[in-house]
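name: query_chain
kind: protein
chains: 1
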Amino acid sequence: MSLGDFNKLVREKLGFETYPYQKHISEEIEKNLDTKRFIIVSMPTGSGKTLIELSVAHYLSSKVSNNIIVLEPTRLLCDQMYHRFWKRVFGNDVGVEYEGNCESFEQGRKIVVSTPFTTAKCLDRADAIIIDEVHHAFGDARYEETLVNLEPRFLIGFTALLPSYKKYLIDSRLVKSLGQPEYLAYDFKSLSKIDPSFKLPKAIADIFDSEFNNLEDSLYEAFFKGLIKGNKETVKFLELTFYTYGKEAFCESYRRLIGKVEESPYIDSICDSKDLSHKARALRSVLNIYRVEEFKPVLIFTSRKSTAYEFERAISDLGKVKVITGDSSRYERLKVVQNLRRGEIDVLISTIVGEEGIDIPEAKLLIMTDVPQSALRFYQRLGRLIRGKEKDEGESSIKYLVVTLTPKTSEYDNLDDALRNLYLEGVDVSYLIEKREDKGPVARVVDIISKSGGQVLINQIDDTKKRSSLSLLSLLESSEGKSHIDEYVDRTLRDGKALYYYDDEIMGKIVSQVLLGSYCNIGFGETYMKLCNSEYKKIGEILLRKKGSIKLDKKSSLRPFMKLFLSSNLSEIMKELSEKKSEFEKELEGREFSVEVHVSKIGNGLLAQILISATVDSVTVNPKIQINYYDLKDEKLVKLNSLIIAYSSLINFYKLTFTGNGKVNSK
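structure:
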């Protein structure tokens, strides 16, 4: 199919024309595909490389007989690109799959947009592979094994930037089967030459991770798990201060608030440390890539004075650095700006005072080391960079914005309003989505589960979830509110990163109290006299009022019994639970009982109805227990877990009612 046919298709399906430079690059790729099978294309962020990828798929569809796989690094990008482009242009010929689903592959769709993990699971061979963000593929074993095993006839990768060192990381097996890659590199200058109508973005945005070291990570995890005790609002403020501004600002605030927070070895270790904070280390990393001599004058914003002065110490060897804060007089501020414009200052570090009233149109690089909660403050910061003098069109007119964010914290969540402001101001944010994926607090929950061997009881993540008793009555009467971590756990479940089941030992003891309450309504004799205390009799009264049914449906009450595990470990967990089921069945051999479990959908989760019938001393009890599984959709997992809980409750029930020598065994 010709390029003209593709341009017509784009016009019909997307409602716009391809640009001349996009047509030119498509023609270059097609020309190279006549002799080359391995091509790497680099194009600047915001120049529309997705349209080129569509063009390549359109061209390859006439050259290959089977499938064309489009690899995206994240499920978020799979969804975004599939709905915005691939589905609209190619209709039913294209499918999208991630998280291990294979339906589109099994249906034989001509084009499938997918992640490397899912593709490797679902496919043995691929005729052609198009890789978005191809820089991920070099040096990443997951990508490399997928690409090598699929043995494609054609491999075409796209990226905004391919660092030179990445070229040396290409798997030799790919080179052996496909030949040396052909590199087609286009920067803003070359695109402007190809197409004079090409419009440069006002600015390009980038994100850098401010990674914690081990000491910092230990303190943040202590905050995250609720191990730092004290006034609730104060603890929350200190947590935010720590991950947003670093240890200098944190320790300054902590010393000011002594008495409102309990002493902690985690805090002492951080405040005794002489190392640079994670924010200062990230700033040095940024300036090692965006070199001061190439981008000066550089503007750096932080909201805390102590952090600003730490930054000054951290980068003093990289150029002439000056700090302005609220302590600086108006005269001092004006003098600093004049010196900066004359080239006597390379880097200006500013707190809130510099967010308005100071115009530095000469600035090429703005680094935000925190994201202001106020949209207005973010807008004012942004204005220091991009509302300056208009320059002649060309590469030099592009300005750069770098935001440093702390992974596995809420800083990544706070970026949404900021991104919206960037977009409205003409700043290109098209590739920030990929960088944000899996970087917020959900990643912290996943990380804790991973470090705990792949599954963890929720009270090991959240210290506030520890229970002093396992009383059914207290569970039914509980009205616990949400803790600081509940929202993150819920999002981890909704995002499909983790699943859970209720701990069968704990829940078994809870449900066994339902059986005992039923028994105490109709039992008799020595066992009844010794066993049926006031608590079990009260449970029995509740069962009479509820017609033999107990509902365990309060999300807050059920949370402490949740055992979280990574979604990727589902098959291992199912095997483990199946083995436990067999063990329990053997232990219950010779007992007179029956169990039925029915699972139905309810809201965003599932409802398990457990019908238990058990006979002891000629007394038969048959209560019904309903258990809610919030944010779970795997019916097999829920049914198996509910069955094991029922078996565990029966084992407890028979132990408590066994009267071998006239004594009740209450172990």
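note: Confidence is low (pLDDT under 50) at residues 387-396, 659-667.
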